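Colleagues,

For the teaching module next term, I've prepared a clean inverse folding example: a structure given as tokens, and then the sequence designed for it. I'd like students to try predicting residues themselves before seeing the answer, so please don't circulate the second half yet.
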């Protein structure tokens, strides 16, 4: 009986962790019901929102647009053609896997200048920071690596160097899922 109880407790913890953790990550639909479009004020859209590692940005848009992740300087000047990643599928989901500020523009000439640009500041999982802003980046802004993004047409860039001082960078969901598997193996082996 004691063996059954000692095995039941880790199983209960495993079930709770595997069902609660995915709920913590949020999908943020860029522009809400208006989507990714010309003439939107995405700084208003980001105000009051908090983005964390593990969340995703969902861009919904019609043909004739792109979602390009760009450097801070390309974001500020609406420079196209240097995208870190680019997608034009009409439904782009980008997993926010690293903390820092991520910059996105529409790569179609003139669209960024007409408002199709958004910057989101992503907090490390579990940290508490002020909500994101879509303002002009300061000179000390960082550009993060797109490693693991769900975006097609990945183009390597010299800006694509992960910060090795932070160690291995995995999402909280992956870390807890791995822990769940390890506990499961320990309990049932």
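(Answer key — instructors only)
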């Amino acid at each position: 009986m004691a063996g059954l109880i000692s095995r039941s407790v880790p199983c209960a913890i495993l079930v709770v962790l595997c069902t609660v953790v995915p709920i913590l990550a949020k999908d943020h639909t860029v522009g809400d019901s208006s989507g990714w479009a010309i003439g939107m004020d995405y700084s208003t859209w980001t105000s009051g929102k908090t983005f964390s590692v593990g969340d995703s940005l969902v861009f919904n848009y019609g043909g004739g647009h792109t979602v390009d992740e760009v450097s801070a300087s390309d974001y500020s000047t609406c420079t196209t053609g240097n995208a870190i990643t680019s997608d034009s599928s009409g439904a782009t989901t980008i997993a926010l896997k690293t903390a820092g500020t991520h910059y996105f523009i529409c790569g179609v000439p003139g669209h960024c200048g007409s408002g199709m640009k958004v910057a989101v500041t992503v907090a490390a999982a579990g940290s508490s920071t002020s909500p994101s802003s879509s303002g002009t980046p300061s000179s000390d802004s960082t550009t993060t690596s797109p490693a693991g993004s769900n975006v097609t047409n990945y183009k390597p860039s010299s800006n694509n160097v992960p910060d090795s001082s932070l160690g291995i960078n995995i999402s909280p969901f992956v870390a807890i899922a791995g822990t769940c598997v390890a506990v499961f193996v320990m309990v049932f082996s």
